[in-house]
Design brief:
It contains four helices and seven strands. The protein has helices at residues 17-25, 55-60, 90-97, 102-109; strands at residues 3-4, 48-51, 70-74, 87-88, 118-122, 129-134, 151-152. One of its GO terms (molecular function) is FAD binding.
């Protein structure tokens, strides 16, 4: 059953651990509860329903900062056991820079670049390394093409 984000502080939806960490640190959560018109029997008015608490859904929930009521629903009630996307490109970080310091929080919380810039192929978690591929270029971090660099936001 989908869960609806909103309400009290204990009603955060199951999403990315890092995103939840960031949301809990905010003074005002970026989502609102389902609010009705005030009179008994009025149907609740919800202009925006955001389906999915992934990166896009969480950013869309910032609509409440502009006075637009919204709710986020997420089908998963537990964290995934498998890693998902962790890389945040320059353009996304530029947008995050304008969202209450989100880019700065991500930059401060990410591990050192050398720990995540390569794909390492091995026989098992503690087995022999078969090889590694570095997918980053110096300009990804030099802030030449963008005022902010790429980032890693682990789950």
């Amino acid at each position: 059953m989908p869960s609806i984000a909103g309400g009290g502080p204990g009603r955060l939806f199951a999403a990315h651990r890092g995103a939840i960490w960031w949301l809990r640190r905010r003074q005002h959560p970026p989502f609102s509860s389902l609010a009705g018109g005030g009179r008994r029997g009025d149907a609740p008015h919800l202009p925006v329903l955001i389906v999915g608490a992934g990166p896009v859904g969480l950013v869309l929930s910032f609509l409440t900062k502009f006075g637009i009521k919204c709710a986020v629903i997420e089908k998963n009630v537990e964290f995934t056991r498998h890693p998902r996307a962790h890389f945040i490109n320059n353009r996304t970080m530029e947008i995050f820079r304008k969202l209450d310091g989100l880019a700065g929080d991500i930059e401060r919380s990410q591990p050192p670049v050398d720990l995540w810039r390569k794909f390492v192929y091995c026989t098992s978690l503690s087995g022999s390394v078969l090889g590694s591929v570095d997918h980053m270029k110096p300009e990804d971090f030099d802030k030449v093409i963008s005022p902010i660099s790429v980032a890693h936001f682990s789950q």
